[in-house]
Structure formats: structure tokens, C-alpha cells
Amino acid sequence: MAANALDEQGYQVPLTVLVDKERNRVVYAESGNDFVDVLLSFLTLPLGTIARLVAVESNIEAVEFGSLSKLYQSVSELDEKCLWNQTCKQMLLKPRNSMEAYCKKMKLNIDETARLMFFYCKDDNCTGKNGLHASTLRDQRCICGKMLNVEVTLDSPAENGFVKETCTFIISDDLCVMPNILGTSLNIFQKLGINDIDVIDKQTVHFSKSEACYLTFVIDLLKLSLTSKTPLSDVIFKKDKFVGNLDPRNRLEFWTGEVDEQRNESNKMSVKILPIDVESSAYSISNKDVKLVNPKSPSSGGFVNGPMSFMVTDDLVVSPMSSISGLEYLKRMKVPLNDVEERVISIGLKEGLSILKASLTSTSSFTNGLSFFVTQQFSLEKF
User: Fold this and answer.
1) 308 and 241 Cβ atoms separated by less than 8 Å
2) φ, ψ of residue 93 in degrees (nearest 5)
3) pTM of the predicted model as reported, rounded to 2 decimal places
4) DSSP state of 24
5) Is the previous residue joined to 295 through a cis bond, with omega within 30 degrees of 0?
6) Out of 177, 214, 267, 305, which residue is the most buried by the measure of CB atoms under 10 Å away?
7) Which residues are within 8 A (CB) of 254 and not within 5 positions of it... i.e. 6 or more apart?
8) Residue 60: how many other CB atoms lie within 10 Å
9) Pair 94, 295: CB distance under 8 Å
10) Domain ranges of the chain
11) Rounded CA gap, 263 and 270, in Å?
């Protein structure tokens, strides 16, 4: 994994690791801003980008990111006729990173989303009459009906990552980032029960962008950050054992806390379920104010076409509604028809957040995310 040759730009990213030789694990790593910026950039990645990256083969097999991996796959297979337009799929499968300016200068940036560009109408009459309308996606239509196909690249200033270049940091095995001070390291040793300094070995790993291993390492680390409590040890020692998916949680763990009930009630929607027992809108181009054309449906603001009904399975696979498909799904799940009951539950902010939480850690998003609310509502209906 270590590398000595500099890449074409003459830089390497070093990572100093303290290893417990007896237990064959990482105690902590010490690094400058380059590697820490990589870790912090994980927090900026849209869920669609994470689902795409963890499905890439690396030293670690593809990881299913809760139910979101199934959701991502189902959208990629969804007929574009079900969407308002062809760019909706692009927006969902390759979403833009809102922190792009901070990430694009990083030496180990794994988000390969295309550079931000604008496309506007070449019709001067349209521009003069309606103002300059543009889109950040190809193949959009202007409000005049013509294609937005004049390409403009903005040279926006790139930010210098997230942390100061002069700082160094301690990264624990579970990816907790802390200031590089003696007290922090001593606390880690005490927490891990390490008293003998002789069992500690220091290793330095270098990553060069010209090497294929750098990308693999970062993607491995992203996967393990979702599935392991010791991602550094697992990736450094290339351990075979890791959790391919987070275990389904108890439904009570998905309680979302206090939510504005008045706001929640006014924004609820009703859905039928089958319980089974088993970016900114204003920019400037050439000193002209730009209005972004809604790439989705201007009428609804949504992604899917309507009026249309969809079936969403427990692991968030989305497909057009079909009674035959529904029966085939029950057959695949080996569910007796007399065990199936239709119920209607209102989905508001609290329920939506619960589904989101469950989707991050479970392949049973509705079962884990809504079972509490379904039980509660069913109990109220009995009285």
C-alpha cells in the first residue's frame, strides 16, 4: 500500500498510523489537512452519490447502503416515461455536491460528478424579452420552448478544503477527528486499555494520486465507515471480516424526537401499506442575472410524472403500480394471501424522518420506520 513515487503533480498524501502489534489493530492515525479533508468530504456527499460509490468493486465487495442501494437501483431501472423528463434521472443518480467548491481542489477527491456548467438559450430575442434563463443540466428547454444549448463554464474560485493547512489531527479507529495534542492520544490509549508503549508500532503510508490504490483505499474507507466501527483497522490490515450491511434496528430506535405537530399535520399525505407478518436559484453570467429553469416539473416541483401510482417495497424498490406485480412480489416473499391486510397511514414530517433513518441502516425501511406509527394508529382505531 505504501508508495514512494510522486505523481505527475509532485505530491503525496502521508498517513502516520500507530498500531497495536499484539491486537493487530490501529490505535489512531496522525495526519495533516489533506487526508482529514477527504474524511470530512464524506459528510458532503449526497445520498445518491454514496449509494453509487459503495456499489463500486474495490478491495471490499460492493456494499448495500441500507435500503438506499435498492432505491438507487430501482430509479436507474425506472422507465423515463415515469419521470417528468429525462434529466430527472440524471439529477437523482448523479446529484451535485453543494460543497463542490471545497472538494474539487482536494488531492483525493472521489466525487467524479461533472464540473458545474450552465446552458442557456441562444435566441437573443428570448433573452431580451424574458431575461437570461439557464439550466445546470443538458437537454433542458427554455421557457420559450427552444433548447438551452449554449454552454458556459463558470470559473468560480475553489476553496481550500475544510481544515487549515497548518494543522495536524488525530483520527481514531472509528474515524473521530480530534486536535493533535498529547492529552488526546493519552485518552485514546487509556480508553483502549493500552499501558505498555512497547506494543505500539509506527507505520507511515503514502498515497499518490497517480496510483490506482489511492482511489480504492478511499472507497474502501467510505464503505467501511458505513458498516464497521473499526474502519481504519479493517482497511489497513485488509481484514476479511466486516458487516456487509448494518443490522436492522428495533423500531423504537427510529423515533425521530419532537417535531412541530401543527406543521407536521398540515403536510401529511395518505399512503396505502400492506403489513406483512414476517441549490441557489440566482447566478450571474457575463454580468447578467440568471434565472434557473426548473429541471423537474414546473407545476409540481417533483421528479415522477403524474397522475401515476407507484408501488414501493419494504426495501424501497420503486416501480409503477400493477396488481400483477404486487401479487408477484408477495409470491417472491412467500407471503400467504390471508396474512395480507391493507391499511392507510398518514405520512408527515415525523413519519418521513423515521423512514429516512430506517433506510440508512436497514433493508426493511417501512417495517422499521413505520411499525410504531402503524401500531399506534391501529390501536386508536380499535377504540
Assistant:
1) no
2) -85, -25
3) 0.78
4) T
5) no
6) 214
7) 354, 357, 358, 368, 369, 372
8) 24
9) no
10) 1-111+159-243, 117-153+281-303, 251-275+309-382
11) 16
**Residue for grid cell 481542489:** 105
Alpha-carbon distance 211 to 217, whole Å? 11
The sign of the CA dihedral 182, 188, 191, 197 is negative
Contact 19, 27 (CB under 8 A): yes
Spatial distance between the Cα atoms of 220 and 63, rounded to a whole number of angstroms? 10
Q: Please enumerate in sequence order all residues whose Cβ is within 8 A of that of 72, keeping only pairs 6 or more positions apart, or say none.
A: 48, 51, 52, 55, 93
Average of per-residue pLDDT values in the chain: 78
Residue in 300, 298, 304, 306 with CA at minimum distance from that of residue 281? 298
pLDDT at residue 243, rounded to an integer:
42
* Residue the block writes with cell 412480489: 329
Amino acid at the residue 114: A
Nearest to 173 by CA among 236, 108, 217: 236
Torsion angles phi and psi, residue 372, rounded to 5? -60, -45
Q: Residue 145: is it exposed, middle or buried by C-beta count within 10 angstroms (0-12/13-18/19+)?
A: exposed
Q: Which of 85-94, 207-216, 303-312 has the lowest mean pLDDT?
A: 207-216
Whether the predicted pLDDT of 252 surpasses 50? no
Q: Are 236 and 50 in contact (CB under 8 A)?
A: no
Rounded CA-CA distance 39/110 in Å is: 11
C-alpha cell recorded at residue 322: 400493477
The C-alpha cell 450491511 sits at 245
Cell of 61: 465487495
Decide: helix, strand or coil at residue 102: helix
Q: Which residue has the higher pLDDT, 103 or 19?
A: 19
